[in-house]
Amino acid sequence: MPTTKISSPETSADHPITKRDLYASYASGLFSMGQAELLTVIIPMWAVLQGASPAEIGAIVGARSALTFFLAIHGGALMDRLGTRRVMLFFTAATGVLALFYPFLPWLPAMIFLQMMIGFTSNMTWMGAQTLVAQVAKGDPGQIGHFSFYSRIGNVIAPLLMGFLWDYTGPRIAFFGIAVWSSVMFLAVWQVNPAMQVMAKRGAFSWRDVLPKLSDYTGSINLIWVPAVAFTLAISFTRHATNAAENSFLIVYLKEVGFAATTIGAIFSVGEIASGIGSLFAGRLARALPMVSTMIAFTAASIVLLALTPFMGASFVLLAAAQAGRRIFEGLVQPLMFSLQARAVPRHLQGSIVGLRVTNNRLASIVTPVIMGLIVQWFGLTAGFAVMGLLLCGFCVALGVVMGRTNTQL
After folding, report:
1. Per-residue pLDDT for 351 more than 60?
2. How far apart are CA 308 and CA 228, in angstroms?
3. Are 252 and 381 in contact (CB under 8 A)?
């Protein structure tokens, strides 16, 4: 794998980093991750309520990633060009508005369309949070680990909140809750210091500045030749394929064995607490163990725990413990992945690298629910977890072999 060094003049003057900037990046991570979790919990249950088949559920969940797959690189370039704060404020407001339409459009084509739109807007806010902390922390795995910890706080609160709203107020109020959450997030992003912006264009901008550019895509794709970027993209793809399987059919499984929405939310919250705790130790892990083999091994371990789900029956303790173990591994890997990528490219390209990673992740999120939906429809739910686990573990083994043969030092 060739080593590529990327260099380019800084596009804006550096602003001294303050605690306000750091805390603002933590808050943006908390609310953007929580926003995604609100949608993760409610959409499969809403689809089941409308009588969707397993294949249709897979299509609905997968549609959330469709537009993001095509436009994430453009979105990352927008942040580099216009500033992260500007872009985040617009897409935070858009997500809240779109959530209000779901109860009034309960038809499959409409749900798929809404999923495509809200998937893009909500992913743009999470991309913005990642870009912001990369610019503020400058690749420090400790600070990025704390960012991941605070992001998980949003993920702990969101499933419990959504499960409670669903059980005790109904689906319509639950969707309204997403709009309220987005409003609070808007206020949090507003606190970001406007001066702490790395952008190519300051002041007013024209409509041409927001259009996709071929150079944005070619520039981002060329980052794949950076070894750290290529490796972390492979790890990120595998992690998100696992999460896509979890976010669609783990929820369906839990409903089938008799868990209420509030209990399902509690299981996911236990996992997010574990993930947040794991992320706090990422800095120490980076100093103590070889990063490449550790990231591959922990990713494979999280896949195995998900594949074992059907063998745990309806035991809340076992299911919650497996979810906690899986998320600890993911919590340790995520900051290492962010840190490797943030240090591999300069500050003015942080939006572009996030856009490339999110495009990669959305591909996993589009493909996995559809494939698993077909597997479940053909073989049944239990075999679906096992087959998907074997496929993803096989990918981890192949990645380990490739990295071992190239002997690349990251």
Report:
1. yes
2. 31
3. yes
Convert the pLDDT of each residue in 100-128 to its tens digit: 998 888 888 888 999 999 989 998 898 88
Phi and psi of 212, rounded to 5°? Answer: -60, 145
Residue 111: name the closest of 158, 58, 150 by CA: 58
Token look-up 């100093």 returns 287
3-state secondary structure 99-167: HCCHHHCCCHHHHHHHHHHHHHHHHHHHHHHHHHHHHHHCCCHHHHHHHHHHHHHHHHHHHHHHHHHHH
Q: Which residues contact 104 (CB under 8 A, 6 or more apart)?
A: none
* Cβ neighbours around 398 below 10 Å, total: 11
Residue spans of the domains in the chain: they are 19-192+219-406
Output the CA–CA distances (angstroms, integers) from residue 225 to 2, 230, 236, 353, in the order listed: 6, 7, 16, 12
Whether pLDDT at 170 is above 70: yes
CA-angle at 22, arms to 344 and 219, nearest 5°: 30
DSSP-derived letter for residue 280 is: T
Q: Single out the residue of 116, 91, 109 nearest to residue 35, CA to CA.
A: 91
- The string of DSSP letters for 177-219 reads HHHHHHHHHHHHHHTS-TTS---S--S---GGGGS--HHHHHH
* 133 contacts 144 by C-beta, under 8 angstroms: yes
Handedness of CA 245, 248, 249, 255 (dihedral sign): positive
CA nearest neighbour of 396 among 257, 293, 316, 322: 293
Overall CATH class of domain 19-192+219-406: mainly alpha
Q: What is the DSSP string of 37-105?
A: HHHHHHHHHHHHHTT--HHHHHHHHHHTTHHHHHHHHHHHHHHHHH-HHHHHHHHHHHHHHHHTTGGG-
pLDDT at position 15 over 50: yes
Length of the chain: 410
d(CA 386, CA 357): 27
Residue 222: pLDDT band (50, 70, 90) is confident
pLDDT of 4 reads: 40
